[in-house]
Write a structure and sequence with these properties.
Layout (H helix, E strand, L loop, with lengths): L5 H15 L3 H5 L2 H4 L5 H16 L1 H11 L9 H15 L5 H14 L3 H16 L6 H4 L5 H11 L3 H7 L7 E4 L6 H10 L4 E3 L6 E4 L16 E3 L7 H4 L7 E4 L6 H9 L4 E6 L2 H14 L4 E4 L14 E7 L14 H4 L5 H16 L2 E11 L8 H10 L3 E4 L8 E2 L4 E3 L9 E8 L4
Helix pairs in contact: 1-4, 1-6, 5-6, 6-7, 6-8, 7-8, 10-11, 14-15
This protein binds S-adenosylmethionine.
Length: 435
């Protein structure tokens, strides 16, 4: 068995994730993955298996442990992944039992560990015999314990929904360049191409596809009329209203979804797009080129003003900070495996440092939009409460009445899945002009 088998490819993907700590995005964009010569359909199945194994790991792993007499040794991680792939196909994908067992046993045989195929066969047949089901209660446990505890502590009665929605497959949502194209006309054009779509009820520039499709099939994608962006992320440009000629800083800008949207909505602004990752900035460059806009690009740590700030302060700042990404786990389920509880405190400290530094380069009278794709209160309303305590010259601007998300003591929170959006948080601050 080798690189033309989708299950074998998924096994390699998961080994890279576990052993090298690499994200699925990173692996799927790697030369190795791109060089695979299997059909689109098989590549799709490999991705589906890898996404599913991440999404359901915290359900499948204890289920498996419970069925093994002794823990799997570290050097047999391949067999552990194969076993979970079998469980995933049986319990979640609902693959026909005979096919799921056969394909999984074949994969185990190819690993050349004589004991493994018998074990795989026995475990999977037991699960079939016992008619195990993965019900809602079990599905809500598909997260590391520390994440469940945090979400339950933060959201009480709403936590169950946040957890269940976080396991759903996300829709493919598009942003229409509404300056150059009408949303309804675009929906009609998509229909002409056989792509079913509807306008998002809360976000006027957003179109939700009935099922995901390759961007190359989207009319107007190359011309920048359509971009892929979740509806919650599209709210940013409507909150940070920029006057013509404004000097704008997008402080954590890559890969540039919100930079492009700001420029489409306010074409006469002067934008500095800053990010600490050169690789991600390359994607920002490509995105801006595609939508036909430009920005001054700065590679730097936003908190280290000496390394990038030229002395001319900004009218508007978008601070879309690095965060736990706990609001986008339905899109990036590998976060469940890669993010550690011990990451949170350093992230909170980094957010504080960045946002304090950015404040000092905002003009008096200027506005800063703080955002994260997190549903953890510490990164959101608690962070803003601390910020307002530290900065006497900061005032919170109440966000306009809206039918997205829910108002919080500070800012507004979209919980994962509400109106089929990613989990997101926004707070708008202004710097008091005391002259
Ligand atoms: C949430 S993502 C930004 C998404 C982007 N605003 C968009 O809409 O496409 C956060 C970004 O912060 C960047 N980042 C992390 N630490 C940073 C720092 N100290 N200074 C500047 N950028 C940083 C990451 O490289 C990442 O691209």
């Amino acid at each position: 068995m080798n690189a033309d088998n989708p299950r074998w490819i998924a096994l390699q993907v998961m080994l890279k994730l576990f052993e090298q700590g690499r994200s699925l995005d990173d692996i799927f964009n790697s030369d190795w993955f791109r060089s695979l010569t299997v059909s689109r359909r098989d590549l799709g199945l490999s991705r589906e298996l890898a996404y599913g194994l991440c999404r359901w790991h915290h359900v499948l792993s204890p289920m498996l442990k419970h069925r093994l007499q002794k823990p799997v040794r570290a050097r047999d991680r391949d067999i552990e992944i194969i076993l979970m792939m079998g469980l995933y196909q049986l319990l979640i994908m609902k693959t026909e039992a005979h096919a799921a067992v056969n394909e999984t046993v074949k994969l185990a045989q190819a690993q050349k560990k004589k004991w493994a195929s018998g074990l795989v066969n026995a475990v999977l047949r037991n699960v079939i015999r016992e008619e195990v089901v993965c019900d809602d209660k079990l599905q809500a446990r598909a997260y590391p314990d520390w994440m469940i505890a945090r979400i339950e502590a933060d959201w009480g009665d709403q936590a169950g929904e946040v957890l269940l929605w976080g396991n759903q497959r996300p829709p493919m949502t598009l942003r229409v360049d509404s300056e150059h194209c009408d949303v309804e006309e675009m929906i009609a054009k998509l229909a002409d191409q056989g792509i079913g779509a509807s306008q998002h009820a809360q976000v006027e520039t957003a179109i939700v596809l009935e099922s995901p499709c390759d961007v190359t099939r989207l009319p107007g994608f190359e011309a920048g009329l359509l971009s892929v962006q979740d509806a919650a992320a599209q709210i940013a440009a409507s909150l940070l209203v920029c006057d013509s000629g404004a000097r704008v800083l997008d402080a954590c800008a890559a890969p540039g979804g919100k930079t492009a949207h700001l420029l489409q909505r306010y074409p006469n602004i002067d934008v500095d797009a800053l990010d600490s990752s050169e690789t991600r900035l390359e994607r920002l460059r490509q995105n801006l080129r595609r939508v036909g806009h430009s920005a001054r690009i700065l590679v730097a740590d936003a908190a280290d003003l000496d390394s990038w700030f030229g002395g001319s302060r900004y009218d508007c700042i978008l601070a879309d900070l690095p965060c736990s990404a706990s609001g986008v786990m339905r899109r990036h389920p590998d976060i469940k495996l890669l993010r550690r509880e011990s990451d949170i405190m350093p992230l909170l400290a980094q957010q504080r440092k960045i946002v304090d530094a950015l404040w000092s380069v905002l003009k008096p009278g200027g506005k800063m939009l703080y955002s994260t794709c997190s549903v953890f209160k510490d990164e959101n309303e608690v962070q803003i409460a601390g910020f307002l305590e530290r900065h006497a010259d900061a005032a919170e601007i109440t966000l306009p009445r809206a039918d997205w998300g829910e108002p919080r003591p500070h800012g507004r929170q979209v919980l994962t899945g509400s109106h089929n959006m990613d989990g997101f948080y926004y707070a708008l601050l202004s710097r008091i002009d005391s002259r």
